[in-house]
Amino acid sequence: MKSNEYELLEKLYFERIGGTDQELEACHIIQDELSKIGLESHIEAFDVVTNHVSKVSLEVLQPYQKTYEATAYMGCTNTEGLAGDLCYFESDNAVSRKQVSGKIALVNGYLGMKTFKAITEAKAIGFITYNGNIDREENDLDPRELRETLQEFGNLPGVNIRVDDAMEMVAKGASEVRIVVKQTIEKVHSHNLVCDIKGENDDILVCTAHYDSVPHSKGAYDNATGSVCLYGLAKELKDKKLGHSIRLIWCGSEERGLLGSKAYVEAHQEEMEHIGLCVNVDMIGSIMGRRIAVCTSDMSLVHYIDYFGKIKGFPIEVSQGVYSSDSTPFADKGVPAVSFARITTSGTGEIHSRYDVIEHLSEQMLVQDTSFICDFVEKMANAYVIPVPKEIPDNMKEEIEKYYGRDLKKKKEEEKKA
Ligand SMILES: [Zn+2]
Q: Using an 8 Å Cβ cutoff, are 128 and 158 in contact?
């Protein structure tokens, strides 16, 4: 017989992109399940943007003519037709920077902050990225977003294409291209779902998991599993006597840059001093994999979870670090945080594509993961005092600065002044 948790996982098995009606539908599904077990919850909306694309294309003009299917980068500069020489910007180095000046850059894969800073500084006039895997029969073409955090470095027209098309362009020596992008940007809402389990005092343990997915993915593993884990915690802990209070937060729009947890910590500034620890769950329950816990805290929490795993016979690798998920905005506000995950091994399941499917998951693993996390949370909730020191060590502060790209921004500002 299937558990309630696994049934919820199946109910959440659809595309849930941040800021869409589908994401809100998923939010309501979780809320309904909570109310079925007698728990009240509330929804907190926050602003995100969406785009309406009326025109987008990528044409190769020289030495051959071909139009490739492309998606517009949400938030990028519009252009009726930007023609220019193409430069394959393989990596950020002095030669590539010189070559890309005044040209349209073809960038490898995902456009990170570092690469975008490099091509804007090198005076590229537009950019092309690609997604997919050449060895697959068919690749979905992902819509991409020029996040606000990247727009701080500048803005250019940009499109995304399939990997097979990018490879064809390079193989055939495409030298001149034209980009067309016409889009309007609109503000919409994404949502966090919040549910409290009251303890005897007002110190709070926050438990987070994002419930949104990327386009073309039903996000079973990333992160319906974490969402279901939080529901499992609610079910298990709601009737227990707890010392500290537990606040469960299902975060929206994590995949668009941790937008839900960032909105939460901004809207609840005064609450931060009462939160002793953030426990985040992002990707568990895979058939194959290895368990990890990443602590953005001092080393005592690392040792504690390591010992806890050893005592319980639960294999887990614990380390100090910054995990790219909703735990980080909390740590950035001075709240120690830990992210739990079961990372799939190479070839046994991937994320951020249509291949993130429920068939790669195991109910048994999901139950084991949830049970370990639940025991840990219960221990913390019933601790005489929350034992994790309420401070972020300097090395972690530095990692967080890097993660947010603030070191790059600082550099840019210094360069401006100089
Ligand atoms: Zn995730």
A: yes
- 396, pLDDT greater than 70: yes
Domain ranges in the chain are 4-49+189-403, 64-174
- How many angstroms separate the alpha carbon of residue 141 from the centre of ligand 1? 20
DSSP state, residue 270: G
According to DSSP, the residues that pair with 337 across neighbouring strands are 278, 296
Residue with tokens 């693993």: 365
Report the separation in Å between the CA atom of 266 and the middle of ligand 1, taken as the mean of its atom positions.
21
Query: 325 alpha carbon to ligand 1 midpoint, in Å?
Result: 6
Q: How many whole angstroms from 262 Cα to the centroid of ligand 1? A: 15
Per-residue pLDDT of 234-268, as tens digits, reads 999 999 999 999 999 999 999 999 999 999 999 99
Distance 202 CA to ligand 1 centre (A): 29
| Ligand 1 midpoint to CA 345 (Å) | 16
Distance CA 376, CA 368 (A): 13
Is 90 exceeded by the pLDDT of residue 411? no
Å from CA of 176 to ligand 1 middle: 38
Distance 298 CA to ligand 1 centre (A): 24
Ligand 1 midpoint to CA 350 (Å): 11
pLDDT of residue 1: 58
Average pLDDT, the chain: 96
Q: What's the CA-to-centroid distance between 332 and ligand 1, angstroms? A: 18
- Amino acid occupying residue 93: N
Angle formed at CA 190 by CA 188 and CA 193, multiple of 5 degrees: 150
Q: What's the 49 CA to ligand 1 centre distance in angstroms?
A: 20
DSSP characters over 271-286 = GGGGEEEEEEE-S--B
The pTM of the whole model exceeds 0.90:
yes
CATH fold for domain 64-174: Glucose Oxidase; domain 1 (3.50.30)
Q: Quick one: CA dihedral 290, 296, 299, 302, positive or negative?
A: negative
Q: Using one digit for the tens of pLDDT, what is the confidence trace for 101-140? A: 999 999 998 899 999 999 999 999 999 999 999 999 889 9
- CATH value of 4-49+189-403 in 4.10.640.10, 3.40.630.10, 3.20.20.70, 3.10.310.30: 3.40.630.10
Q: For 163-201, how does the pLDDT look when each residue is reduced to its tens digit (9 = 90+)?
A: 999 999 999 999 999 999 999 999 999 999 999 999 999
Q: How much distance in Å is there from the Cα of 122 to the middle of ligand 1?
A: 33
Predicted pLDDT of residue 415: 81
